[in-house]
Structure formats: C-alpha cells, structure tokens
Design brief:
alpha+beta, outer membrane lipoprotein receptor (LolB), chain A, 269 residues, 11-stranded antiparallel beta sheet, globular
Length: 269
C-alpha cells in the first residue's frame, strides 16, 4: 500500500510539473509563434508610409568601413511597396569602385517587410519564404540580450531573433539560393528609436557571405506623409527551403512519462 501510494505521488508530480524535469524540451515557457509575430508587428502598426533618407557605407571582408558613402532615399508604403533613389554619391574608396561596377546597392530588400505594418499571416509567410522553420521556437542570447528565436538552434540555420522585453526584431538570417555559393544573409537591427506610436531601427547592418557588407544609417525619417511616386512591390529573394539539421526530435512527453512510470514500478515492486 505504501509503495503504491508513493508511486502514485511520483507519477502525479511528473504529470503535473513536467517542466521541472524536462526544462529544455518543455514549451510551457515559449509564446506561440503566431502570437510572438503579432506582438512584433504591433511595434510598426502606425507606420503606413515612411520616407527614409539614409547613408550607405560599405565594409570589406576585414570589417574595415569605407569612408566614402552614398545617400539614398527610400519610400515605403504598407503593406509591401517601395521606391528608392540615389540622391548623393561621395567619390573615392571601395564604395565608388563597387558602385561604378554594379550600379546598384542591393536587390535584396525583403527584410524591410519586417519593419512595416502587417498582420501575422503576412510575416509568417515571409518567414516561410526565407526558409525559417516556424515550428522551432526557443530562447537565445544576442550580445547579452535575451531574445526569442524562431528557427533552428544551429548558427547556420535561418532564423529570426526578437527581443524578449521589446518584441523588436534584432537579427534576421537566411540562406540565399539564387547563386551557386548559397550565401548566408545576416541582417542586424540596431539603435531603435521611438517613432510616433512605434519604433524603427536607425542603423541596419547587412552581410552576405564573403561579399562586401553594408551599413544603413538613417539621416532623416518621415512617417505617414503622402507618397505621390509610383511604387513597386518589395521583392523577397528566393531562399533555400527549410531542411532541419537539428538532432532527432525527443520522444513525445507522454512516452517519456510512461517510461518513467515503468521504471519506478520496477524499482519499487
């Protein structure tokens, strides 16, 4: 009788408080991805139009930032439209050579969609398009800041990191499939400032494999002013489809509990 009562007590503890014994696998502490994305999007819900004047600096593979730069004006309109124009070019440095050779800064502007008003389904679609495993959610740290992670744990896996306290995007990473190198694109969002009822990053860093990196620094930003120019839809670069490189999934919670119950019964038989 005593043994049976003891076993029942142990079983109750495992069933009622599984997170005490399986903290790494329990999802009790993780916000559902749909709710997480919705709260992130709320930070930008008041920005129906944006007119951004920004400087763009290039950095070589050693991280040395060019002293020369371009100034660009970008028009953005919800939910996903844009226009851009180079308004000033400073001669000299690697930027001048790069600009003269390519005549473009980048065609990859999909990350701008994260910073525009939109409902959860719009952002969820963007994450899937960029190869992020939306079924994998957890916590991580980025430079000491606790963040939600949407995507697999591996450093090389596509992912979106969202600040735990602020619900602002901190890092967006995905692997391009448009070239043979299958470059990993990493975008970091810095220096968030209050803008109307929301927030916006005044510094964005963009790196793609071993290519020259870019740093976008906002000089001037206007919100909710009319845009009279024709706009294009912000393209989303093709990304590699999601392929999990995580370890084999742990057995379901119920199966683990059955194993524990079986073990306890054998031990106290």
């Amino acid at each position: 009788m005593i043994h049976n009562a003891f076993i029942k007590s142990i079983i109750f503890v495992f069933i009622a408080f599984p997170a005490l014994f399986f903290p790494n696998n329990s999802r009790a502490y993780f916000m559902p991805v749909e709710q997480l994305v919705k709260m992130m999007a709320a930070n930008f819900s008041g920005h129906n139009t944006l007119i951004i004047t920004q400087s763009i600096r290039l950095a070589d593979q050693d991280g040395q930032e060019d002293t020369a730069s371009l100034e660009e004006r970008v028009w953005l309109k919800a939910p996903c439209f844009f226009r851009s124009e180079i308004i000033r070019q400073i001669e000299g440095g690697i930027f001048s050579t790069y600009w003269m050779r390519t005549r473009q800064i980048t065609t990859d502007r999909g990350f701008r969609r994260l910073l525009m008003p939109g409902h959860g389904n719009t952002i969820m679609t963007l994450l899937i398009q960029t190869g992020i495993n939306i079924e994998s959610v957890g916590f991580t740290r980025l430079n000491g800041v606790v963040a939600y992670r949407i995507g697999d744990k591996s450093p090389e896996s596509p992912k979106l990191l969202i600040g735990k306290k602020t619900f602002l995007p901190l890092l967006f990473r995905y692997r391009m499939a448009v070239d043979q190198a299958k470059r990993m694109v990493t975008i970091r969002f810095h220096d968030y400032r209050k803008l109307g009822k929301g927030w916006y990053p005044f510094l964005i860093s963009y790196t793609s494999g071993q290519d020259i990196g870019r740093r976008y620094s906002i000089i001037d930003l206007q919100i909710n002013v009319p845009i009279e120019y024709p706009l294009l839809e912000i393209p989303v670069e093709t990304a590699l489809p999601y392929q999990s490189i995580e370890k084999e999934p742990a057995p379901p919670e119920d199966e683990r509990l059955r194993d524990i119950i079986r073990m306890l019964k054998e031990k106290y038989r």
